[in-house]
C-alpha cells in the first residue's frame, strides 16, 4: 500500500490518475480505516487530503454563502457559531455522525463520497442546495451534492477526480432547515430513514422548499413532489398530509436487517412531516 | 438446612468499601486476556466457514504453510480422538467439534483451520491462502422449522433417551414436569388464555473479546493465560481435547471484561495450544468482534405456547407451557430450565410443562444469565398480565394471591424453603413508582422472575502473613466485584480490616478444583468457603493463644480480631491480637492458614419483581423505557453497591434483549449483523436511571444468609418491558425484540 500526502488538489488528482488498483482518498478516515481493518477494502493507494492548504477552512463569502474545506471535521463545524445559526439542520446532520471521537475526524466530503444511501449529512446537504467543486485531470468542475452518489458505494467521480471544496448557499431571510433521522437507539447508530427539509417563507407561507430523503432508495433522494406539496401553503394539516404521501411515494427501499420496506416507507412520511415543521419553526424564528 | 453458626449482626458485611481491583481497572494496569505477551510469541488466526451447513471435502493448507511467516497450521487432525455420545453425555465431543469442525461445517463462522504466524496481519493473510472445498448442504436456523419432519438433519444420533422416536433427529432432549390435573384446573377457571410467544437469540455482549496466550511443549506440559469465567473447566476441557493430562496444563485466569455465562466454555484456547504444540512457540489468539458474534455462544432463541386459567378473584387454577429452544448445531439449549422456571413464582395446584432442546445451523449456544428463565418469564408473565387486564385485576395483587412461599410445592418439583418472593411483591406495591401517574402514551408493566442459583465445587485457602495481613485465594474469577465481597466476609470472621486482606484468583496449580463463576454461585459458595476457611484459621490462631496462655483450647474465643479467654474462669489474660500471634507463628508451630473445600448445596433460590414504565411513539414504533425499578431478594447483601450493580446490569441487558438485540439470519443461513452497529445493545443514553431495592430474606443455607443475585435480575425484564410496551401501544407484543419495525407492524395490524 502506498500512502501520499499531497500539498495541492492538482497533485492529489495527478496521483490518483496515475494510481493502479484500488485508490482511496483519506479525509477523516472514519470509513476508509474501518473498511481497511475489517478486511472489506484494502486500498493500494491512499491519498491524504488533510495537509492541502485550505482543506480545513470554513469561510463565509461576501455574498453570505459559505465555502467549506474538504477536511473540515464535524466538530469544527459544530463549534462554528455563525455557520450553525445559518444552517442548523446541516450542522446537526453532520453532528449526528458517530461519537465525539468520530466527530474529531469525520467530514462532509467523506460522508458524501462514501456514497452510503444512509449517510446522515447528505440529505441535509442536498436540501440545502450544497454544490461541490471537483478537481480532476481536466481541471475543475462543479456539481450538485445529489449528483455525486450514483449507487451504494459508487460515485460519479471519474478516475483522478476528487472533491476540492463544498459550497453552501447564502441563508437569506426567513429560511430554515432541519434534518431528522430514525435510529432504533439514541446515538451511535445508522439511519434507517433520514429526512431533510429546507424552506423559505414569505409571511407564513412557504415560497421555496427542498425535501430530501435518505436510506429509502439506492441513493439519497431530492423529492420535488414533496417540496411541491408544501410550497404555497402555511404547512397546515392538509399540506403535511400531502407531504407525507409524496415522501412515501418517492421511497423504493429494501427489506434488510435494519428495517422493512413498509417500515421505511411509513417512517419516511412521518419524518418528512416532522422535519418540515421543525424547519418551518426555524424559518419563522420560533426555534433555533 | 439451617446452619448452626449463622450470623445476623455484622461489622464489615453490608458496608461499601472501594473494590480492590478498582484502581487497576481505571488506570489500565489490570491485565485482561489480550494483555499478556511472551518472548517468541506467535499470533494465531482462525479460518471460518462462510456456509451455514457444508461437508468439508478437502482442506489444502500447503500454500499457507509455504509462507516464511507461518509457523504452524492446524485442522481437526491435530486434536485428540474423543468419543461421540448422544445429548450432553457427549459434551466433550460437542466442544471439540465446535472448536474445530470435523467432517462438516455446521454454521456460518464454524472454525475449520487455524494458523500461527509471526504477526497478526501475517496470520490473517495466511488464512486467505488456505483452500477449503465445501459441498453445501441444506440448512435450517429457525427452531420451529428445525423440528418439522422435512427439516435438514444436522446430526443423526445426537438425541438422548428422553426424546420420543417419532420426533425429528434435530430434537435432542425433552423435559417434562409438573403436578396435578391441568385439564380439571382449566375447567374450573372463569377465563383461560392461550397464546404463543417468540424470542430471538441474543449475545451476552461482553466488551472484552475472547483472548488467550497458550504454550504447550512436546512433553505434554503447558501453560495457558486466558479470559474465562472458570479456569478449571478450561484446564479439564483443553486437556481432553489435546490428549494430555489435566495436571500438566496450568491455567491462569486474566481479568475479565464481562462474561455473563458466555465465557464458561472454550473456543480459541485449545486452538492456541494445538498451534503452540506444533510450532513449539507460545501462541496468542484474540478474537475480533465479528468472530465473537459468529462463533462464540449466544443464548438460545425460543418459541413458546402458554395456557393459563384464572378465576374472577385472580386465583390461577391451572397453567401449562411448551418451550422449544434452539441452541445451535449441538445439544445444550436449556429447554429443561426454561420449562422449570416458567411457573416457579406461583403456588399452583395444576401445572404442566414440557421443554425441547433443538439443534439448528447456528453457533453452539452458551449460558447467558439464568439460561432459559427470561424467555419463560416473558411468555408466562405476558399471559398473566393479559388475564389481569381482562378480569380488571391489579397485577401485583394477583401475583401476591398466587405467590410461592415457604413450603409451596414448586412447579418443578421440590418444596421451597424460606423464600422472598412475597417480600419483593410487597415492596413493589409500596414503592412510589407503582403509584406514580403515567403520562399519555406511556404504559406500566410488572413481572416476577425466578432463578434456582447454584452451589458447585469450591475450594478456598487463606494464608496469614507475619505482619497480620491475609492472602485469600479463591478459584472463581471475579465477574462482579466478588473480591470485595470475599474480603468483607473474611474480615467479618477474622475481625481485621477489609484493607488488610488481599484476594487473589488463584491459578489451577494453586488450589483444588473450582467450578466456573456461574449459577450466581460465587458470593454464595466461594463466600461460604471463605467464611469456613477463615474460621479454620481462627481455630488455629486460638490454639496458639491457648498454648501461650497454657489454658485449654476451648477456653479461648475469638472477638474483634483477638483471642480472648472465653470467660472469667478461663483465666485473666489481655486480648491477643491476630498480628501478635502471626508475628511469632514461625516459633510457635509454623505458618498459619485456613482451608475449606466442599460442594455446598444450600444456594437458596431467588426471586425478583420489576416495575417498568415505557413510552411508544405510535407513528414510528420507537420505544423508550422511561422509568425502571428492580426489587430483588439478595438474602444478605455483602457489598450492597455490587448487589445494586448486578440488579442494574440485569435490567440494562434485559432492556437490550426486549427492545433491539437479536441475531438476524438471512435467507442464506448467514448471520447478518455480526457487529455492534447492527447488533444493538443499549448505549448509555438509551437507559433511564435504574432504581433498586434490596430485599433481604436470609438464605438458611449460607452462614450470613447470602443468595446469589447475578442472574435473577435478568429474569423479569423481558416480561415487564413487554407488558409496559403492550400497555403503552395498546396491543399485545408477542415477539422479542420489540424493535421499531415489529412494533409499528403490530400497531398497524391492530388498526387494520
Ligand atoms: C463509530 C462510527 C460511527 C459512524 N456513524 C455514522 C453516522 O451516524 N452517520 C453517518 O452518515 N456515518 C457514520 N459513520 C461513517 C463515517 O464516519 C462518515 O461517513 C464520515 O462522514 C466519513 O468521513 P471521513 O472524512 O472520515 O471519510 P473517509 O473515511 O476519509 O473517506 C470516505 C470515502 O470518501 C472518499 N473521499 C474522502 N474525501 C474525498 C474527497 N475530497 N474527494 C473524493 N472522495 C473522497 C474516500 O475515498 C472514501 O471512499 C460512522 C463511522 C464510525 C466509525
In N-to-C order, the SSE pattern of chain A is EHEHEEEHHHHHHEEEEEEEEEHHH
What helical percentage do the residues of chain A reach? 25-40%
- As a percent range, the share of strand residues of chain B is 15-25%
Give the name of the CATH superfamily of the domain at 175-284 in chain A: CO dehydrogenase flavoprotein, C-terminal domain
Count of DSSP-assigned helices of chain B: 21
**Total helical segments of chain A:** 11
pLDDT < 50 runs, ≥5 residues of chain A:
none
Assembly of the depicted chains: heterodimer
How would you write the strand order of the largest sheet of chain B? 3-5-1-12-9-10-11
Query: Of all protein chain pairs, which has the greatest interface, and how many residues does each chain bring to it?
Result: A-B, 21 and 24 residues
Query: Which architecture of the largest domain in chain B per CATH?
Result: 2-Layer Sandwich
The CATH superfamily of the largest domain in chain B turns out to be Aldehyde oxidase/xanthine dehydrogenase, molybdopterin binding domain
Structure, explained:
The complex is a heterodimer of chains A (288) and B (752). Chain A has 288 residues and is α+β, with helices and mostly antiparallel strands. Chain A has a domain at 175-284: CO dehydrogenase flavoprotein, C-terminal domain (Enolase-like, domain 1, 2-Layer Sandwich). Chain A has helices at 9-18, 32-37, 74-78, 81-86, 88-95, 100-103, 108-113, 121-128, 224-230, 237-250, 261-284, and strands at 2-4, 23-26, 45-48, 58-60, 66-68, 131-136, 139-144, 149-151, 154-155, 162-168, 175-182, 193-202, 205-214, 221-222. In chain A, α9 packs antiparallel against α10 (237-250). Chain B is of the alpha+beta class and 752 residues long. Chain B has 3 domains: 35-138 and 204-295, Aldehyde Oxidoreductase, domain 3; 372-453 and 604-751, Aldehyde Oxidoreductase, domain 4 (2-Layer Sandwich); 455-598, Aldehyde oxidase/xanthine dehydrogenase, molybdopterin binding domain (Aldehyde Oxidoreductase, domain 4), CATH 3.30.365.10. Helices cover 28% and strands 23% of the residues of chain B. In chain B, the strands form 6 sheets. Chain B has a 7-stranded mixed beta sheet, with helices on both faces. In chain B, α10 runs parallel beside α11 and α11 runs parallel beside α20 (717-729). The relative contact order of chain B is 0.13. The structure holds flavin-adenine dinucleotide. Flavin-adenine dinucleotide binds at residues 24-32, 34, 49, 70, 96-99, 102, 105-107, 109-111, 113-114, 119-120, 157, 162-163, 190 of chain A.
Amino acid at each position: 500500500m502506498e500512502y501520499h500526502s499531497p500539498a495541492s488538489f492538482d497533485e492529489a488528482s495527478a496521483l490518483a490518475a496515475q494510481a493502479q488498483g484500488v485508490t482511496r482518498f483519506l479525509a477523516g478516515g472514519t470509513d476508509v480505516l474501518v473498511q481497511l481493518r475489517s478486511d472489506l477494502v484494502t486500498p493500494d493507494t491512499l491519498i491524504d487530503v488533510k495537509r492541502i492548504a485550505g482543506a480545513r477552512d470554513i469561510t463565509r463569502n461576501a455574498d453570505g454563502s459559505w465555502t467549506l474545506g474538504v477536511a473540515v471535521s464535524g466538530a469544527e463545524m459544530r463549534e462554528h457559531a455563525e455557520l450553525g445559526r445559518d444552517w442548523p439542520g446541516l450542522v446537526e446532520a453532520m453532528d449526528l455522525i458517530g461519537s465525539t471521537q468520530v466527530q474529531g475526524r469525520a467530514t462532509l466530503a467523506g460522508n458524501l463520497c462514501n456514497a452510503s444511501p444512509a449517510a446522515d449529512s447528505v440529505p441535509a446537504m442536498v436540501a440545502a442546495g450544497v454544490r461541490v467543486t471537483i478537481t480532476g485531470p481536466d481541471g475543475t468542475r462543479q456539481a450538485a451534492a445529489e449528483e455525486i452518489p450514483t449507487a451504494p458505494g459508487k460515485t460519479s467521480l471519474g478516475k483522478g477526480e476528487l472533491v476540492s471544496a463544498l459550497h453552501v448557499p447564502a441563508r437569506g431571510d426567513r429560511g430554515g432547515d432541519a434534518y431528522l433521522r430514525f435510529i432504533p437507539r439514541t446515538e451511535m447508530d445508522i439511519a434507517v430513514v433520514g429526512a431533510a427539509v429546507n424552506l423559505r417563507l414569505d409571511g407564513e407561507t412557504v415560497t421555496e422548499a427542498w425535501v430530501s430523503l435518505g436510506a429509502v432508495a439506492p441513493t439519497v433522494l431530492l423529492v420535488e413532489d414533496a417540496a411541491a406539496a408544501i410550497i404555497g401553503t402555511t404547512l397546515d394539516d392538509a399540506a403535511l398530509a400531502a407531504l407525507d404521501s409524496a415522501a412515501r411515494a418517492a421511497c423504493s427501499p429494501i427489506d434488510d436487517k435494519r428495517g422493512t420496506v413498509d417500515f421505511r416507507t411509513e417512517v419516511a412520511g412521518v419524518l418528512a412531516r416532522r422535519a418540515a415543521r421543525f424547519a418551518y419553526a426555524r424559518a419563522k424564528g420560533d426555534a433555533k | 438446612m439451617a446452619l448452626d453458626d449463622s450470623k445476623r449482626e455484622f461489622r464489615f458485611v453490608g458496608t461499601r468499601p472501594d473494590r480492590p481491583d478498582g484502581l487497576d481497572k481505571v488506570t489500565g494496569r489490570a491485565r485482561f486476556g489480550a494483555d499478556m505477551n511472551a518472548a517468541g510469541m506467535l499470533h494465531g488466526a482462525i479460518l471460518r466457514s462462510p456456509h451455514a451447513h457444508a461437508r468439508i471435502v478437502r482442506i489444502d493448507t500447503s500454500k499457507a504453510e509455504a509462507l516464511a511467516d507461518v509457523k504452524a497450521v492446524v485442522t481437526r487432525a491435530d486434536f485428540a480422538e474423543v468419543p461421540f455420545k448422544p445429548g450432553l453425555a457427549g459434551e466433550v465431543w460437542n466442544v471439540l467439534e465446535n472448536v474445530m469442525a470435523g467432517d462438516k461445517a455446521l454454521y456460518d463462522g464454524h472454525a475449520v483451520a487455524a494458523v500461527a504466524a509471526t504477526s497478526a496481519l501475517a496470520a490473517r493473510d495466511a488464512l486467505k491462502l488456505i483452500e477449503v472445498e465445501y459441498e453445501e448442504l441444506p440448512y435450517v436456523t429457525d427452531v420451529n422449522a428445525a423440528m418439522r419432519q422435512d427439516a435438514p438433519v444436522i446430526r443423526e444420533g445426537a438425541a438422548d433417551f428422553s426424546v420420543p422416536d417419532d420426533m425429528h433427529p434435530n430434537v435432542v432432549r425433552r423435559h417434562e414436569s409438573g403436578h396435578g390435573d391441568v385439564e380439571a384446573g382449566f375447567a374450573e377457571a372463569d377465563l383461560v388464555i392461550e397464546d404463543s410467544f417468540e424470542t430471538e437469540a441474543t449475545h451476552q455482549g461482553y466488551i472484552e473479546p475472547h483472548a488467550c496466550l497458550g504454550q504447550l511443549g512436546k512433553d505434554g506440559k503447558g501453560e495457558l493465560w486466558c479470559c474465562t469465567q472458570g479456569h478449571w473447566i478450561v484446564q479439564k476441557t483443553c486437556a481432553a481435547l489435546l490428549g494430555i493430562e489435566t495436571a500438566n496444563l496450568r491455567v491462569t485466569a486474566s481479568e475479565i471484561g464481562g462474561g455473563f455465562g458466555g465465557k464458561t466454555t472454550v473456543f480459541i484456547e485449545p486452538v492456541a495450544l494445538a498451534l503452540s504444540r506444533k510450532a513449539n512457540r507460545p501462541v496468542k489468539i484474540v478474537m475480533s468482534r465479528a468472530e465473537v458474534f459468529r462463533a462464540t455462544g449466544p443464548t438460545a432463541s425460543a418459541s413458546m405456547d402458554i395456557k393459563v386459567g384464572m378465576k374472577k378473584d385472580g386465583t390461577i387454577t391451572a397453567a401449562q407451557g411448551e418451550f422449544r429452544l434452539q441452541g445451535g448445531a449441538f445439544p445444550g439449549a436449556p429447554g429443561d430450565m426454561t420449562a422449570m422456571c416458567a411457573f416457579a413464582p406461583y403456588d399452583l395446584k395444576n401445572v404442566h410443562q414440557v421443554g425441547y432442546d433443538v439443534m439448528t445451523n447456528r453457533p453452539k449456544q452458551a449460558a447467558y444469565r439464568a439460561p432459559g428463565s427470561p424467555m419463560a418469564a416473558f411468555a408466562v408473565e405476558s399471559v398473566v398480565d393479559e388475564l389481569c387486564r381482562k378480569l380488571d385485576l391489579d397485577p401485583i395483587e394477583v401475583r401476591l394471591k398466587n405467590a410461592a412461599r415457604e413450603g409451596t410445592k414448586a412447579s418443578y418439583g421440590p418444596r421451597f424453603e424460606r423464600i422472598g418472593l412475597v417480600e419483593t411483591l410487597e415492596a413493589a406495591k409500596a414503592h412510589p413508582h407503582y403509584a406514580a401517574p403515567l403520562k399519555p402514551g406511556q404504559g406500566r408493566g410488572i413481572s416476577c422472575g425466578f432463578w434456582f442459583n447454584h452451589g458447585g465445587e469450591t475450594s478456598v485457602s487463606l494464608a496469614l502473613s507475619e505482619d497480620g495481613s491475609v492472602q485469600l485465594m479463591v478459584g472463581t474469577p471475579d465477574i462482579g466485584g466478588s473480591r470485595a465481597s470475599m474480603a468483607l466476609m473474611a474480615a467479618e470472621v477474622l475481625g481485621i480490616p477489609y484493607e488488610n486482606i488481599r484476594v487473589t484468583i488463584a491459578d489451577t496449580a494453586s488450589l483444588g478444583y473450582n467450578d466456573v463463576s456461574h449459577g450466581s454461585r460465587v458470593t454464595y459458595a466461594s463466600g461460604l468457603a471463605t467464611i469456613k476457611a477463615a474460621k479454620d484459621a481462627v481455630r488455629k490462631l486460638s490454639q496458639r493463644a491457648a498454648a501461650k496462655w497454657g489454658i485449654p483450647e476451648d477456653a479461648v474465643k475469638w472477638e474483634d480480631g483477638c483471642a480472648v479467654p472465653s470467660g472469667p474462669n478461663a483465666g485473666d489474660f489481655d486480648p491477643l491480637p491476630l498480628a501478635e500471634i502471626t508475628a511469632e507463628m514461625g516459633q510457635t508451630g509454623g505458618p498459619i492458614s485456613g482451608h475449606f473445600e466442599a460442594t455446598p448445596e444450600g444456594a437458596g433460590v431467588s426471586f425478583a419483581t420489576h416495575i417498568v414504565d415505557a413510552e411508544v411513539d405510535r407513528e414510528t414504533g420507537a420505544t423508550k423505557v422511561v422509568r425502571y425499578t428492580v426489587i430483588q431478594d439478595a438474602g444478605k447483601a455483602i457489598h450492597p453497591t455490587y448487589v445494586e450493580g448486578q440488579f442494574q446490569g440485569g435490567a440494562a441487558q434485559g432492556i437490550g434483549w426486549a427492545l433491539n438485540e437479536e441475531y438476524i439470519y438471512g435467507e442464506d443461513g448467514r448471520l447478518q449483523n455480526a457487529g455492534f452497529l447492527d447488533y444493538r445493545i443499549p448505549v448509555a443514553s438509551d437507559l433511564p436511571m435504574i432504581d433498586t431495592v434490596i430485599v433481604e430474606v436470609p438464605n438458611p443455607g449460607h452462614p450470613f444468609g447470602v443468595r446469589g443475585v447475578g442472574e435473577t435480575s435478568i429474569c423479569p425484564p423481558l416480561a415487564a418491558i413487554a407488558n409496559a410496551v403492550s400497555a403503552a401501544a395498546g396491543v399485545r407484543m408477542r415477539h422479542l425484540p420489540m424493535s421499531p419495525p415489529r412494533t409499528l407492524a403490530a400497531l398497524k395490524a391492530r388498526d387494520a
